[in-house]
Amino acid sequence: MLTNDDGIDSVGFRALYDGLSRVADVVAVAPRNDRSSVGRTMSHEVPVEEHELGYAIEGTPADCTVAGLEVLCPDVDLVVAGCNKGANIGAYTLGRSGTVSAAVEAAFFEVPAMAVSLYIPVSDDWEELATEPEDFREPVEIATFLAEHAIDAGVFEHADYLNVNAPYNTAEQSDVDSEGGTDDRLPVEITRPSRLYDMTAERNGDSIRLRDRIWERMADGTLPEPEGTDRHAVMNGRVSVSPLSAPHTTERQGTLAEVLEAYGSAV
Question: Of 131, 148, 212, 254, whose CA is between 20 and 30 Å from 86?
Answer without folding.
Answer: 148
